[in-house]
Amino acid sequence: MEKKDLEYFKDLLTQWLDELLGKAGNTVVGLLVSEDHLSDPLDRAVLDSERSYTLRIRDRESVLIKKIHASLEDIEDGVYGICDDCGRDISIERLKARPVARHCIRCKTKQEERERLTGVG
Ligand SMILES: [Zn+2]
Fold first, then answer.
1. pLDDT per residue over 78-107, tens digit each?
2. How far is the CA of 79 from the centre of ligand 1 (A)?
3. Alpha-carbon distance values, 35 to 21, 55, 67 (Å)
């Protein structure tokens, strides 16, 4: 991959990470603020279900944050955009659509077919 492309993805991933971390911070503040004002059990039930929803989103976000970190490390190590399975370059188009992709489209398709057949994944 060319240096300008690496710079492009590095900026993209860094911005994405900042956004996610900013939002994660707000979520925590939101939880702390709303809890103080609720004593009604019904409100509490609503709050609990809202909280588990929020936590589920945060779980997903933290997985994404880990992936972004891994991609940024790959950029530093000079192995970003190389398929984990076959070692070929992942296309720029694919990376633009999914900057944290670790597999080329061929390996990803194979993997998805396998998952569909075995029901694993
Ligand atoms: Zn591959």
1. 999 999 999 999 999 999 999 999 999 999
2. 13
3. 22, 15, 31
